[in-house]
Specification:
138 residues, mainly alpha
Length: 138
């Protein structure tokens, strides 16, 4: 039973990685950044009760679920980039998509660190504010 389950999970994982353009350093980095962002968001809400995603700032299952759905959508967009690369015979669309999402995850991680009370360099605060203002205008 255990061997069958491990084999099935391995086949599914391999198929997903292949569809995403293969397991390489950039995909690994994106997955790590996504996990750190999600965990740091849980800490902000669960320990510090400072989450801007709920009225009380505390953990809320709906906010956590929405975060996971967003992470899943991120991977679907990487899938689209990988398929466009394959279709057009290119090698950079997927990587550009991954780099953009890594930058987005990094900003979110830094924001979470700020919500935890970790002192941030002023230049990082200004960069985050500029990026948030640009996204608010859109």
């Amino acid at each position: 039973m255990k061997a069958t389950l491990c084999t099935a999970l391995g086949i599914m994982g391999g198929a997903i990685c292949a569809a995403l353009g293969g397991w390489d350093q950039s995909l690994q980095a994106l997955i790590i950044f996504m996990a750190v962002d999600y965990i740091s968001g849980l800490v902000v809400a669960g320990v510090f009760h400072a989450s801007p995603k709920s009225e009380t700032g505390a953990l809320e299952s709906r906010a956590g679920w929405k975060g996971l759905v967003r992470k899943g959508m991120t991977l679907l967009i990487v899938l689209i980039g990988a398929q466009l690369d394959a279709l057009l015979g290119l090698t950079y669309i997927r990587d550009a998509v991954i780099i953009a999402f890594i930058a987005n995850e990094l900003i979110s991680i830094i924001e979470n660190a700020g919500l935890m009370g970790i002192p941030l360099p002023e230049i990082l605060k200004q960069a985050i504010e500029i990026l948030q203002n640009k996204s608010d205008k859109k």
